[in-house]
Every structure is written in C-alpha cells, then in structure tokens.
Amino acid sequence: MRPTLTAALLALCPIGPAAAADLFLAQGLMTGEVTADSALVQTRLTATPGLDSDGDVPGATGVVAFDVAASADFADATRTPFRPATADRDFLVRARLDRLDPDTIYHVRPVFGPTPEDATPGPPGRFRTAPAADADVPVRFAMGSCMHYFKFMHGKTAKASGPVTATDEDKRLGYPSFAALRDARPRFFVGAGDIVYYDHGPPKGEDRATMRRKWHEQFRFPRLTAFFAVTPAYWLKDDHDFRYNDADLRGTRPPGPTLGSSVFLEQLPLAAQDAADVTSYRTRRHGKHLQLWFLEGRDHRSPNKMPDGPDKSIWGVDQRDWLFETLAASDATWKLVVSPTPMVGPDDKRKTDNHTNLGGFRYEAELFFNYLKDAEIENVALLCGDRHWQYHSVHATGVHEFAVGSLNDENSRRGRKPGDPKSTDPDGLIDQRWQYPEPTGGFVVVEAGETLTVQFRDDQGDVGYRAKVTE
Fold it and tell me: Are 418 and 425 in contact (CB under 8 A)?
C-alpha cells in the first residue's frame, strides 16, 4: 500500500495561499512542449485550494509571471512579463520560454497576486530541456492514457470496467499511477488522449463551463500537481477529451468539434496562449537516438461510417504527407510514432473509429505500413493510447506497437487477443508478444538509446513485461 502523502510531497504541490488570502494555485504548475531551447509553462489562479462545495475549482482574477533560473535558489532568475488571469481564458496564464540551453535543468516558479506590486513567488517546479539533435545520450520517458475520473471516484456505481481499488486516501490524493510515475523519474510524460471524459458524469461536459470543470477536477489532485511540477509533458487528444465516445466531426450532439478542439488547446500547454491556427500534430527531437511524432486523430478525420478506401482518412492529406516526409527525413536511431488510437491491435470487432477496425480506416493503415517498407524507413515503432489494456503486438511488416492501457484500475479491462472471433483479428494473424494477464491500471516507461526498451508497469510501478528492440 502506498504511504500517506509526506511533507516532501506537499512541498512540491503548489496548492498553498498566494500573496492575497483569496488566491491559490490549486492546479499547480505545468510545463509542456519542451525542446532543446524552449518550453511552455502555465498555471491557473484559483479562488479555492481545491474543490468547492459544487465540485469545481473556481478561478480568480489576478496576474502571473514566471521566474526561470538555472539554480534552485533562483539567484540568477529572469522573470517573464506579468499577464492577467481572466475569465475568458479560464484564469489560465501560459508563457513561452526561449533561448534555453540543451539538456539543462531549469527551475521555474509562478509569481502571482492581485497586481504585479503585490505578487509573491509560489512553490517551484523544474524541467529539463531536450538534448541537442546530435547528443549521444539515452532518453527515458513515460506515457499513459485513459484517465477516468468518474470511475475512479465512484467505482461500480460508475460502471467501472476493471477492479475497484481506489481508497479514500487515493480519492484525496489522486491516481496511484502518478505516485509510481514520479518514482520512475522520467524525463518527460506523454498523455496519449482521453485525459478527461466529457461524456461521463454527472455533470457531463457539453458546454464550455462543464468541459472546463472536467479539467479542473482532474488536475487539482496532489499526486498530479506534484508530478507535473517536475515533469514536462506532451499531450494528444482522443474522442473523450474532444467530444464523446468514437466521435468524428459530424452530428449535432454537444459538444461540437470546434468547441472540443478549442477547450483542449486552452487547458493544456501545447501551444502559445492565444496562438492562432495551431497545428496539433508535431514532431520533437530528443538527442541522437529519439524523435517522436505526436499525431492528431480527431480534427481532420473522415466520417467513421464512410466506406473504407483511399478517400477515407483519420489524419487528413496534409498530416499524412507531413508524417511520411518527416519520417523519411529523420536520422534518429528510433522513430516513435505516438497515436491516440491503435494501428495494429487487435481491437473489438464492433468498433469502426480506428486504423485496426473492420470497416474503419484500414486502408490508411496499410498505406502507412507499406510506405515504411517501400521507402526502407527502419526503426519505426508505434505507441498508442485508447485501448484500455496493455499489449505488445507486431505488424506483418515488423513494426512494433505498444499499447499503454488505462492509467487507473477502474478504467482497465480484458483485451481482445489474436484469434478471438469478437476481435479485428479472428484468424489470429497478428504476432502479439504480450498482453497483461489481468486488468490493471498503469503506464509504460520507454528508454531510447542504441536499443529501445519498453517497460509495462502497473499503477504501483511494478514491471509486468519488458520488451527490448534492437536496430
């Protein structure tokens, strides 16, 4: 059993009072989109240190700047300009840090108050920039997905699909996976979609106010604020943190697609605050051995029910062309494509919204695998979210796929295996190297160096399976 929250953990949770008694940082400090010379940092001013009596975390007006320093005592700190925390931005303030040095630890803290003159520093965090593209260093990171708040908090009442293990302490502190993730000390974290579930509640997220509430309740947990204060992240969205289960761009059921994309970009440090025309698919380089591609699976997709063929796409033509061109141009030892949804599987036969599905988007998947083969692009592996079970499968062309499963026990389930008549591979053609024996929450830890190592861990941090891929 995990120990109770220690004083050291509390010290890393930016939830205490600010310069004024009615200002707090209940959702902590976050860093995103770290490169070799830049990063995004954000926080949210709140009127309470946690959930209020309505189950939300109300925002508060004020101003925020960020101190950034190479030393933990902030003796050499530089300060970003103060920006207002306002209701139209959900009281979030985000700043871009530039001209950073590669592979360097930076200390950062919010400076906040009702006015710049009354502002004082809040609890600090830190992040490490990416190594330069030619740096011969291994890089270790973690990835998780499918973080279901309602099932975690309410168990069987919320129709939990996996074991109900959350204790009263867990419900105060947050998902056990984040205590285990912090112990794993990854350089960064990848959130592969379904970070919140708009279509589960009450309340369900159907307008901007209720959608924002889903993010507030999720990211106020002390285990999450402690982890993200010291671990930068990259984020992808999937169906549940876009609209609802298996959503595409069609239909009038709320929330609409424009709102879904807008709130996602508002809540997470993926792009500069108020940036226009954001392209949510992107690639990031971490040294000689690792390049990652983060794909967008909802904004550009064809209707799920459209007949499969050359005109049907999850990615859209522009993203697909970009993916093929940038993969071909990369000289990284390992090229890891992070997809919110699977491409190998197998998956449930009944589904139609991903690349593995019968009647889904298989044409585009085979176009991808055949392109890699024909262009002789080597050392490509897939990391995917969406499926609530952990597995390691290999496509017929030799491309490995690692499915990270669900971050919490209550959202895990038994998966489909090759040969299952209710799967997308009833004939058992897929080479599946591993699938967890029992449902459990957890995550993967990946290390990319001369070899690629992927560890599947449960929500207590115990390793259930380790895969090692060589060039």
Answer: yes
Q: Could you tell me the two tokens for 70?
A: 């190479």
> Tens-of-pLDDT digits for all 471 residues of the chain?
334 333 344 444 444 444 456 899 999 999 999 999 999 999 999 999 999 999 999 999 999 999 999 999 999 999 999 999 999 999 999 999 999 999 999 999 999 999 999 999 999 999 999 999 999 999 999 999 999 999 999 999 999 999 999 999 999 999 999 999 999 999 999 999 999 999 999 999 999 999 999 999 999 999 999 999 999 999 999 999 999 999 999 999 999 999 999 999 999 999 999 888 899 999 999 999 999 999 999 999 999 999 999 999 999 999 999 999 999 999 999 999 999 999 999 999 999 999 999 999 999 999 999 999 999 999 999 999 999 999 999 999 999 999 999 999 999 999 999 999 999 999 999 999 999 999 999 999 999 999 999 999 999 999 999 999 997
Strand order across the beta sheet in which 139-144 lies: 92-97, 39-44, 29-32, 233-235, 189-191, 139-144, 442-448, 452-458, 463-469
Q: At what angle do helices 257-267 and 208-218 cross, to 10 degrees?
A: 40
Q: CA–CA distance from 53 to each of 25, 207, 209, 388, 437 (Å)?
A: 18, 21, 16, 32, 41
CA distances from 308 to 190, 349, 352, 353, 427 (A): 30, 15, 10, 11, 21
Q: What is the DSSP string of 175-220?
A: -HHHHHHHHH--S-EEE-S-SS-TTSSSSP--SHHHHHHHHHHHTT
Q: Residue 434 corresponds to which amino acid?
A: W
SS3 content of the chain, % helix, strand, coil (to 5): 20, 25, 55
Q: What are phi and psi of 267, to 5 degrees?
A: -85, -25
Which residues, in sequence order, are CB contacts of 29 under 8 Å at separation 6+?
Answer: 14, 41, 42, 43, 108, 109, 110, 122, 123, 124, 125, 225, 228, 229
Helix axes 222-230, 176-184, angle to 10 degrees: 20
Helix/strand/coil for 229: helix
Burial of 232 (0-12, 13-18, 19+ CB in 10 A): buried
Residue type for 75, please?
Answer: A
CA dist 80 → 42, 105, 431 (Å): 12, 18, 51
- Give the three-class secondary structure for 372: helix
At which residue do the structure tokens 């090229």 appear? 335
Is 413 in contact with 389 (CB distance < 8 Å)? Answer: yes
pTM higher than the cut 0.90: yes
| Residue 316, CA distances (Å) to 61, 237, 302, 371 in order | 40, 16, 8, 16
State how far the alpha carbon of 136 is from the alpha carbons of 99, 104, 117, 132, in Å: 22, 15, 46, 9
